[in-house]
Every structure is written in C-alpha cells, then in structure tokens.
Amino acid sequence: MFEGFDPVILARAQFAFTMSFHIIFPAFSIGLASYLAVLEALWLWTGRDVFLNLFNYWLKIFAVAFGMGVVSGIVMSYQFGTNWSAFSDKAGPIIGPLMAYEVLTAFFLEAGFLGVMLFGLQRVGPRLHFFATLMVAIGTLFSAFWILSANSWMQTPAGYSINDAGQFVAADWWKVIFNPSFPYRLVHMVLAAYLTTAFVVGAVGAWHLLKDTRLPGPRVMFSMAMWMATLVAPLQILAGDQHGLNTLEHQPTKIMAMEGHFESHPHGAPLILFGIPSQAEGKVNYAIEVPKLGSLILKHDLNAPMAGLDTVPRENWPPVPVTFWSFRIMVGIGFLMLGLGLLSLFMRFRGKFYESRLLHGFALAMGPAGFIAVLAGWVTTETGRQPFTVFGLLRTSDSVSPLAAPAVASSLIAFAIVYFLVFAAGTIYLLRLMAVPPHHDEQGPAGHVPSHAAGITPAVGATASGHAS
Amino acid sequence: MIDIAVIWAFIIAFAVFVYVVMDGFDLGLGMLFPLFPKKEDRDVMMNSVAPVWDGNETWLVLGGGGLMAAFPLAYAVLMPALYTPMIVMLLGLVFRGVAFEFRWRTTRERNLWDIAFAGGSLMATLAQGVALGAILQGIVVNGRHYGGGWWDWLTPFSVLTGLALMAGYGLLGATWLVMKTEGELRDQAYRLSWWLLFAMLAAIGLVSIATPFLDAEYARRWFAWPNLILTAPVPIAVAAVTALLMRSLAAKKDYRPFFLSLLLFALSYAGLGISMWPYIVPRSITIWQAASPDNSLHFMSYGVAVLVPIILGYTAWAYYVFRGKVRAGAGYH
Q: Which of A318-322, A401-405, B37-41, B235-239 has the lowest average pLDDT?
C-alpha cells in the first residue's frame, strides 16, 4: 500500500495537516492570555466582581485550549527531524537556535507560570497571581516573536553564508532575526491572534445576549470584544497591505500567485476579483477584473508595469489556484470583520448595542471567522513560498528525509485519526463551557481546587450566589 | 578536549536528563492509573502533577529543539532512524496531555480519558525506551542521511530497554505518590514501589549485561584497564543507592524514596554516557562531527547561561507553591 505515492507530497500533507491543527490553538491562546491579563488587571484595579468572574470563566477555556496547543506543538518540534531531516541538517544552524530561544524564553515561561495561573490564586494571593498571568501572556508573545522570526527567515533569508557541508550559517544574527519580512509578519500575526480571540469572545457574549440582554458578564465581554473589532480590524487591513508590499519586494512570485498574474502587464495590471486559475494553461479563466487597480494597490500608480509568472521558469511557480483562493478568503473575512466593527460602532451611537439582534446574530456568525482567516492567511504565505522551503535557496524536494511513502502515509493516517478524535472532543468541551453564561462566584479550571476564595477577593459581591453575574 | 561542542553535548544531556526524571514521574504515575480504580484516588494522583506536567514536558522540547540547533546532523540522522517510535511517542503524549483537562470536563466519558491518560503514558514511555535501545545498538548512516530500514529500531534489545524504562518510570511515579499522598493510596504506592524497584534492578542488570554484547567497543570501554577505575564506581554506587532506597521504603520515610530513585536514574544515565562517549550517534557520528558551526553554538550559549538558571528558579518556585500532600476533593493543602 502507498508505494505509488510521492513521499514529498505526503510529507507536505502531513506538515500542513499537523500545522493547521496546531496554529488554531496558539492563534487563540495568544489573544486569550492577553485578554485574561487585562481582565485580572481590571479586577485588581476596580475590585468589580464581574471581572473576576469573567477571568475564571475564560481561564477554564484557556486551560483546555492551551493544553491542546502544547501537545500539538510538541509534534511540530519533532516533525522537522522525522520528515524534513535534510532541511534540519542544512538550516538547523540558523533555524535551530531561533527555536531554542523560543523554548528558553517562551515555552518555559508559559509552562512554569501556567500551574500557578490555573490553580494557584488561593496559594499565592492576587498580586503574585497576576504576575503569573502576565508571565504567561508575555510568554505567548515571546513565542510568536521567535517562531515568526524563524518562519520569516525561511521566507526572506538574510544575514547568512553557506559552509563546506552545505549548511546555512549565520553571518549576522541581527540580520537573521530581523530579516526583511519579519516585522510585517509579526505585526500581522499578533493582530490576527488578537482579532481571532476578540471574535470568539464577541460571539460567546452575543450568544448569551441573544437569550438575555441583561446579563452583566456577557455585556462586558461583548462590549470589550466589539471595541477590539472596531479598532483592530482596520489596523489589520493596513498591516496586511504593508505586508503585501513587503512581499512584492522580496517574494514577487508569491504576489503573482495571489493576484493570479500569469501574464505580465507592461501598462498597468488589473485587479482580478474572481476567476478560475489554471496552473496548466497558465491563465485565469472567467476572470472578473478591474483594469489597472492591481498596479494602483501594489505600486500606487495606475500605469505601473507588473511582471507576471511568464517571466519565471515554470519549475519555480507556486501552486497558483490554492494561493489565489486562500488569499481571497482571508481578505474577504478581513472586510467582514471591519463591517462588524463598524456596525457595532453604529449601534453604540444609536444606543442599541445590547439590544440589536442583528448585531448579536452577526457577531455570533463571525465567531469562527478569525480561525478561518488565520488558516487561509497561512496557506497563502506557505504555498506562495513554494517550491522552496528556504525561499530561492533550498527546494522543498531537497528538504525531505530519505522517506519511504508507506511510513509517511501510515503516520499521516495515524495523526489524522488521533487529531480528529482528540480535537473534536476538545472542541465539544470548549463549546460546552461557552454555552453556559459566566455566573456569580465563577470558579477557575477543574473544580477540584478549594471552592471559596474568601479573604483574598478585594471586593465581595453582594448578589446572591448562583445569580448570573 | 573541552570545547564548545562538548559543553553543548553536556547541555543537551542535561536537558534530556531533566526531562527523563521530571516527565518520568508524570508518565510513571499515568501508567499506574489502572492499578488505582477509585475515582478519588485518580483525582488525587492527577492533581499531584497537574500544575507541573507542562513545565516538565517542555524539557523534551528543549532536548529536541536543542539537538536540532546544536547537533543538526545528529538530529537529521536520528529522527528518521527512530521514525516509528517518535510518532508513537508524540501520539502518546497527545493522549496523555489532553486528558489532564478533558477528564474534568465530562462525567460520561471520564473513563475514556482515564484510559487515554494511562495508555498515552504507556505509549510514550515504551517508545522512549525503545528509541534509547535503538540508538545504543547503532544506526546505519549513509553520508549525511539515515541509511537503514524502517524496522531497524525493533530488536529484542530495544524491546528490553523499552520495558526497562517502563519499570524505571513506574518506580519514579510510585515513589512520587508516596511523597505526595496519604492513607491507603500511599500504602499501595509503597507496595508498588517495592515491586517496581525489583523490576528496575532486574532491568538495569539485563541492559548492563546485554550492552557489552552489542559491540566490542562497549565491552572495552567498561572492562579494560585502566577504564575500570572510572567505570567500577558506577555499579558500586548503584548497589549503595539501592540499599538506601530499600531502607527508606522499609522505614516508610515518605520523601526519601523519590529522591533516591532519582539518584538511581542519574547513575544509570551516567552509565549510558560512559557507553556513548564521544559519539552522538553511536559509532557513526561524534559530537564534533555533528556540532553546529561555532557561531550558532556561541549565540545560544549566552541564552542558556542567562536563562536556564532563571528557568530553574521559577520552576523550583512553582514546585514550592504546590508543595506538600494532596488530599482528596480539596486539591492542595
């Protein structure tokens, strides 16, 4: 079985599969860790019970999501060796240290303080506990910093030389870490994580407001989430545009694939809105396009010439249809997010913010939007970088382990079965937690910790126990 | 002789050792789950490691990531050679890891996640032990790639090391429970500790006898004069620690057995180091052949020198916060 399959394709499928499952959790937990830090800070500052209840409510959700992120992340750190050993040998001296710094500055920090954050409020008191929460939040951001630096170096390699063994060696670590696409990618991804979390929080708030508009917890979280959407969605569109210009400069073939520009346009390129790209024919069929808008967006000049894939040897073409479509999905969701942000602002000024079923229904539907956009964005940037792992320097086909198709296929099937079982169960548990509104005297993760926080809460709520808060 | 590559070999060895003993007791405790059928006991067992397991497992990421960074050639050869055990280990760790949270989120499926917890711990342990045996027995290298087949890792010797690690982690888990629990649960952990200690001693004996037969070099390393001066203290120390461990188990000193078991692990680990040195892939690739360029190693050394002491500091603090016995229904006291 599987002898006829191409092991390179199987290894890529395995990486794409395990990575896609993994990225969902960090995208959520980066934002959620920061949100938890904000909630705890607000609780310590104002003493209002509603913030502590919201903190404990989201902490339970964070614990489940973070656990899934950890276990799917460990798989990634070994996947480089099992399936991409030639890449590991050649790029290890540069990628390895960046990942080692991620472990040392981020993973240990998160893991070291996570136990106290989840179970330690009664043991260490609110201030030290807040410190632990902050460390976890900062850890998630450090993690994003290093892993995006490593990924960006593979997209836009800089500051390296090549030694006798054919390995990439750092000539200047500063240039390696702050390679040309890194700042753009970091901003774009961290904003994406914040937006992803905001839309989940907003959807949970909206769900409960649809049933009862007076619940204080859902009102607070819905308002916070919609402010995030209003303020960050436009920022994200701007950051994405800047990231695109950076990509045009350093990875023009990726932009050609995203735009569906098979042909060169010496007198201004159109913006293709939709169409059916055909890799084999080298053109976009049934294209609906706006003349010259492509040049205006990418070069800020209607008549600027734009080169197409016809200037690039075919063996260096990325898979255009996937890149083309995933890009449109991401951008489409980005504008929907902007739309929700603007609608929420409008409803705020109309005084209908907590009553508008239209707004709440829209926000509920947009709950998973961030995840889809993040996945679509990563598919765009990763397939657009093909057929290279280190852009322009190391081909994907030269990066794989000396693999046998049956071994990769079997492990791919094993991962698929286990991930679907485990993460489906996890998703159900998460949705179950979200289906119940936060209530007064909300407890933290795993109801096995002492059930009363008497003596350390700065303000004891006056509402009756069990009453929704 | 002592250069940056050697220092990094010790750093990686340190990370792997910390992983082995720390996740060792988590995984051992997981494997013992089926022997404690009562829900309250299982709650206590899991609570005793819930706040720290994630930090423990991070050392595995440092071991893997550090190996890729410091010895990319070794990482590139070893991982494909150990393909199946690695995948099994990772899947086992997935089951084990999610069970920590999932178990509390359901009553109907709690048993299912208990099985995932125990089964995942067993899968991961067996795979790690098998991987160790597969490395010791030697790996076929072709140029800068793994040159062997997909089933090379599976031999009677690697199965033996797999079982040996199960006994060892089991002992760590049982003595951890002795330290962290009370009453009947602790009494049963004491009984199990005796059995697991005997199993581990038998395993150490069998692996020690089998190793010199794998390759004449191992035999020379251990038994030839003057190496004997350096190697003889290892078995003597194992015997001494075993005697102390038995005394502390008999005298029911709750805290000592765990730390003496750690010491037993340290000695076994030192023995492995003596066998392996100076190879990182036994008898194919040395530390120096596999080492990253100096500038990569130097760049990471700053981070390690500053950050590892800090990491050890806040890890110790987390253990301190959750010190003492865990009681049923009430978490920590």
A: A401-405
pTM: 0.89
Q: Is the pLDDT of residue A458 over 50?
A: no
Compute CA distances B44 → B95, B182, B257, whole Å: 19, 10, 19
B-proximal residues of A, 173-192, CB under 8 Å: 173
How crowded is residue A46: how many other Cβ atoms within 10 Å of its Cβ?
A: 12
Out of B68, B93, B321, name the one closest to residue A116 (CB).
Answer: B321
Query: Omega of the bond prior to A387 within 30 degrees of 0, cis?
Result: yes
Q: What is the CA radius of gyration of chain B?
A: 20
Average pLDDT of chain A? 87
Domain limits, chain A: 7-179+404-469, 198-262+295-301+308-398
Separation between Cα atoms, residue A243 and residue A27, nearest integer Å: 18
d(C-alpha B93, C-alpha B99), whole Å:
10
User: Distance (Å) from the C-alpha of residue B171 to the closest C-alpha of chain A?
Assistant: 24
Q: Tell me the CA distances in angstroms from A40 to A133, A134, A215, A407, one per residue in order.
A: 8, 9, 20, 48
Tell me the residue type at A395.
R
Q: B205: which residues sit within 8 A by CB, 6+ positions away?
A: none
Cβ contact B68–A105 (<8 Å): no
In angstroms, how far is CA A389 from the centroid of its own chain?
A: 20
- Name every chain B residue with its beta carbon within 8 A of the beta carbon of A105: 303, 307
Distance from CA of B95 to the nearest CA of A (A): 8
Q: Are A264 and A308 in contact (CB under 8 A)?
A: yes
Calpha distance B244→B205 (Å, rounded): 18
- CB pair distance less than 8 Å for B65 and A70: no
A317 — contact with chain B (CB < 8 Å)?
no
* Summary count for chain A: helices (H), strands (E): 15, 6
A78 Cβ partners below 8 Å, 6+ apart? Answer: B64, B79, B86, B90
